[in-house]
Write a structure and sequence with these properties.
Strand content: 25-35%
Helix content: under 10%
Shape: elongated
Structural class: mainly beta
Radius of gyration: 12 Å
Strand order of the largest sheet: 1-2
Number of helices: 0
Order of helices and strands: EEEE
Low-confidence stretches: none
Mean pLDDT: 94
Number of strands: 4
């Protein structure tokens, strides 16, 4: 897949991580929340993540 320079990613374990750079290969990602009361970045997650 082609590297998407608009989505930075450092999660090497993700199926969509561009192995040659810290970017995602998806055209878009889905960001979700871990708790119903989200107020900081730690309360969110990439819902598009899939393990390699």
């Amino acid at each position: 897949m082609k590297t998407n320079a608009s989505i930075a990613c450092s999660v090497n374990e993700c199926k969509y991580h561009a192995s040659n750079a810290d970017y995602c290969t998806l055209e878009k990602i889905h960001v979700g929340k871990c708790d119903c009361n989200t107020c900081k970045s730690e309360d969110t997650e990439c819902g598009s993540f899939q393990v390699k």
